[in-house]
Amino acid sequence: AQKITQTQPGMFVQEKEAVTLDCTYDTSDQSYGLFWYKQPSSGEMIFLIYQGSYDEQNATEGRYSLNFQKARKSANLVISASQLGDSAMYFCAMREPRREGKLIFGQGTTLQVKP
Amino acid sequence: NAGVTQTPKFRILKIGQSMTLQCTQDMNHNYMYWYRQDPGMGLKLIYYSVGAGITDKGEVPNGYNVSRSTTEDFPLRLELAAPSQTSVYFCASSQGRWETQYFGPGTRLLVL
Q: Where are the beta strands (DSSP E) in A29-98?
């Protein structure tokens, strides 16, 4: 069965340092997409970054990058130069196009950035 | 740009009452989704639609109904509210199955 696992319920990072949030996934499909969303305390879901299973390069979006290791089925989010505004819950999600694009979410990681 | 909008933001229901959660998107997206998020958890799919007139069940459809008469609107109906339906409900849309899903701000529902 398709599954997303985030093993870090909570993380702390010092402001201006980099942090890695872990995500592993399980699927039997060759074609899939991996997403990271940010959920601040206000509750909205904000799209951060996307990696396709056939993409050869790791995705990057500003201070966010995705460390995609296909053989290990991991898709870790790296946030560089953390800011206080990065404090939020972060969700990893997987989409399989043959399942009509439905997203499967992990349980999330709470990140707190310390000044 | 409005994107995906949801109403109401917050609602308290009594057990057995019914209500409709509204979702509208102005991006002309074909695909729309309803998720629920229980406290401390990730989102789970309730229903989805791949276009006007076409809907299908997700992981947790029991107790809910949907309709999709237009591209823009995808309302979620709760017929007989139960405490187990206390949750935050998110609507999302995407252009297609390959595209990024964009979420509305959510509706917080409390059933007492």
A: 33-39, 46-52, 60-61, 64-69, 74-79, 88-95
Distances from the Cα of A94 to the Cαs of A24, A75, B5, B15, B98, in angstroms?
A: 10, 10, 24, 34, 11
> DSSP class of residue B73?
B
Q: Is A101 on the interface with B (CB under 8 A)?
A: yes
Range list of H helices, chain A: none
Please say whether the beta carbons of A106 and A5 come within 8 A. yes
Cα gap B77→B80, rounded to integer Å = 9
Residues of A in contact with B40 (CB under 8 A): 107-108
For chain A, percent of residues with pLDDT exceeding 90: 83
For residue B98, name the pLDDT band (cuts at 50, 70, 90).
confident
* pLDDT confidence bin for B1, thresholds 50/70/90: low
Residue among B80, B106, B89 at smallest CA distance from B45: B89
Return the pLDDT at A102. Answer: 85
Cα A4–chain centre separation: 10
Interface contact A47-B101, CB threshold 8 A = yes
- pLDDT tens for A50-82 read 999 999 899 999 999 999 999 999 999 999 999
* pLDDT computed for residue B2 by the predictor: 73
Cα Rg of chain A (Å, integer): 14
Nearest to A43 among B31, B88, B97 (CB): B88
How far does A1 lie from chain B, in Å, by closest CA? 13
